[in-house]
Amino acid sequence: MPNPYSLNKSISLLVAVCCWVVVLQTALVQAKIYKWKDEHGKVHFTDSLSKIPSQYRQGRGFETLKEAPASSEFGVNLRLPVKISREHVIPLTRLGNNFLAKVLLNGKVETNLLVDTGASSITLSEEIAQKLGIRNLKRLPQLTFSTAGGEQKAPLVVLKKVQVGGATIRNVEANINPHAGGEGYDGLLGMTFLGNYKLEIRLDTNEMVLTPLHQPGELLWGGQSGPWWKAKFTKYTRKIFQYDILAARAQGDTTKVSNLKKLLRYYKGLHKSLDKRANQVRVPKEYRVYP
Fold first, then answer.
1. Could you tell me which of 89, 97, 117 has the C-alpha nearest to residue 190?
2. Coil, helix or strand for 179?
3. 3-state secondary structure of 165
4. What are the pLDDT digits (tens) for 139-177?
5. Cα 187 to the chain's mean position, in Å?
6. Which of 107, 123, 243, 118 shows the shortest CA–CA distance to 182?
7. Strand partners, 6
8. How many CA atoms lie within 13 A of 14 on its CB side?
9. What is the phi/psi pair of residue 106, to 5°?
10. Each residue of 273-289: pLDDT tens digit?
11. What is the pLDDT of residues 248-276, one digit of tens each?
12. What percent of the chain has pLDDT over 90?
């Protein structure tokens, strides 16, 4: 014969769980997201009607949404329970004590690059440069890099898009080196890409884990945090100042001045592209730095 006390206890527990589920579902159904546009044309989102300025509450100057915007392009941070994958797990191929990653360049050229956190930049072979449509390498700005074979001057290029698994970075600095690459690979995957992530190599599974630098819940614009944007703006601004000063000081050497001016235009172009993208995703002014 069943114990009446145990039976009553089980029924009470079941009722409590059902009530909790009903309350939770009701709260989720009643949750609303409000959207309004200010006098400057900037779009805002909130989960509380009281946070909308009174001038926009009057006359229904706002819109009620059923759910939060899926994109964080405009720095939306509503702290709603949205599941976001923060890790990119990329399979690697062993090459001795090194690893190769499959990389897609500019959305059209797939190649293997050696993962190298000691390389300051992505380095590509001349063969890959040709496949990307990069010609007249001698007309490009030249920069000296330290390589395993000693110092080497290499032309600089900008890759519109670099994809490694699900990780994507746009407008990435790279250089072309005639000695880059080897059997089975065409260059180095360096820090101009890898520096945008926290990197972990799993030796037991031959995998590379790339984790975005921003923290959970941090405001994002175009998928990147404010400090990321500021660091990029600061880097390019410093390079512009650096090569502008060096070009002014090297007036007697025509060849040197010509290359320094090319380097100056190179970083001005990167800064301009960054600023254009920042405008598109509405990065606040406090995260922008200008020459």
1. 117
2. coil
3. coil
4. 999 999 877 667 889 999 999 999 999 999 999 999 999
5. 22
6. 123
7. none
8. 6
9. 55, 25
10. 999 999 999 999 999 99
11. 999 888 999 999 999 999 999 999 999 99
12. 62
Residue 30: enclosing H or E segment and its boundaries?
A: helix 4-30
Contacts of 184 (CB under 8 A, 6+ apart): 93, 95, 100, 112
For helices 254-280 and 226-249, give the axis angle rounded to 10 degrees: 160
**In the chain, domain spans:** 1-30, 88-212, 220-287
Report how far residue 30's alpha carbon sits from residue 160's, in angstroms, rounded to the nearest whole number.
44
- CA distances to 53, 62, 238 from 36, rounded to whole Å, are 9, 5, 38
State residue 92's pLDDT score. Answer: 98
Q: 16: pLDDT confidence band, cut at 50, 70 and 90?
A: very low
Q: What own/partner pairs with CB < 8 Å and gap ≥ 24 does 233-238 have?
A: 233/271, 233/274, 233/275, 233/278, 233/287, 233/288, 233/289, 233/290, 234/289, 236/267, 236/270, 236/271, 236/274, 237/271, 237/289, 237/290, 237/291
Which CATH code of 3.30.470.30, 2.10.109.10, 2.40.70.10, 3.90.550.10 fits the domain covering 88-212? 2.40.70.10
Q: How far apart are CA 158 and CA 120, in angstroms?
A: 14
CA neighbor of 135 nearest in space, from 126, 144, 123: 126
Let me know the angle formed at the C-alpha of 108 by 106 and 114, rounded to the nearest 5 degrees: 70
Closest CA to 178 of 154, 145, 201: 154
Model pLDDT, residue 74: 47
Residue entry with tokens 């984790």: 211
CB neighbours (10 Å) of residue 165?
17
Number of other residues whose CB lies within 10 A of the CB of residue 229: 23
